[in-house]
Amino acid sequence: MLSAENTDLLCRVGRGTPMGDLMRQYWLPVGYSWEYEAEGQPQRVRVLGEDLVVWRTLDGTPAFTQSNCPHRGAGFFFGRTEEEGLRCAYHGWKFDADGQCVDMPNEPAESVFKQKVRITAYKGADYGGVTWIYMGPDQDNPPGIPQFEWGQIPPENVSYAQKIVYECNWMQALEGELDSTHVYFLHRRLNIDDSPRYGLYHNDQRALFHISEKPYGFTYGAERHELDGNVYWRTTQFIFPIYGMFPAQDGVVPLSIYLPVDDYHTVHMGIWWKPAGEMPGNGRPHSALPEEPGTLVPGVGPMKPEQHGRFFAKWWPQAAPDSDFLMDQTAKQRNATGIPTVRLQDSAVIHSMGRIMDRTREHLGTTDVSIIRARRMLLRAATQLREDGTPPPASEHPEQYNVRSCATVLPPGADWEAELDDWHNCRTTEFPRKLADVQRAFEERTLPSSPSYRR
Predict the structure, then answer these.
(1) In this structure, is the dihedral angle defined by the CA atoms of residues 336, 364, 227 and 249, taken in order, positive or negative?
(2) pLDDT tens digits, one per residue of 184-233
């Protein structure tokens, strides 16, 4: 159980809140780089409760500026990008990527008024096929962008699996990513003998958790026992402030991103990469639904038609509260929920908690230790930043993001951290399946055709 006061502290991200100030110490991923074109249409986004437009300068640099012109309040969305600036459609005032007004064509030629007018502007950058924003106090000297491994390998080794707007708070979405024991309940197939296409299965539905705190957050190992006496380990990373990395399998590393849009909305993005080889597909988000009821497909299904006038207008899913997440009673005869993808099954349960869940009413068990630890670390970091200016974890150390997760089988008594250390810290591209005494057939328990199935 968490107090109402600490729930507010954890979940509220607006300017001036403890968690909002913490988030502003980091570069945050906003979208995939291909979404924003040089000299293209400005796009509405909302990040940490601030309405912004994102656009690119002529040289391709992403820019984030306030959504309305300071002259008469017209929306910059209706403006146009010209060379190195954004021009308001109403009276032509033009601003550069740093927020300085550079042209006022409706003012006298000799006027110097433009030199006195600035708008809110935040640094933007691209890394690893993703566009990032830095909303922190030191715009002239921002920290380094997190050096996730996917930005350091060939693009063909990377898949941008999904992007979706959640209509709930960012923290309850992230907590689902750190919860290992839901996997073989929420995502299970009903008949053990059915194909893995219908869902997941493991004989040991309990797990013993081992948490190791790191400078960037923590790694935990969930220990389950195989019928043959070996131990199935699922390791997960919590990385400050908004990242969960559920277990990598077959050499494919998954990362989930939970960008706080405001207190009641979250953008989730998924990125998968294979350090040792190419990823299948074209690297863009999956949008298909299953043809056979009960089977599960990758991604989050199709999006609704563009939601004109809203932030992240192209990323509102058909599977949402107003469609009961496309739950199908026929499909429910084969898998636990009848919802057509693993990610949408997660989406349904986190939305069902409410826009911000009432944590004063929950009853946490021993297998919720990772969620408890994440909350405590975030609360402590936000409080320390506010009270004495302590930089939050990894905010000044982008190299600490170069980590992985893992799912494999080890012999009884093996030290999971020591055995998996080289893989976890990106010192080898050889997946540690060879550590198991008995080769484990992963495909018997996980869905075979895409890493986005695997949890």
Answers:
(1) positive
(2) 889 889 888 888 888 877 776 778 899 999 999 999 999 988 888 889 99
Task: Please name which of 140, 97, 138 lies closest in space to residue 120, comparing C-alpha atoms.
Answer: 97
User: How open is the CA angle 144-262-367, to the nearest 5 degrees?
Assistant: 80
pTM of the model: 0.93
* Per-residue tokens: 323: 């469609």
Tens digits of per-residue pLDDT, 225-245?
888 888 999 999 999 999 999
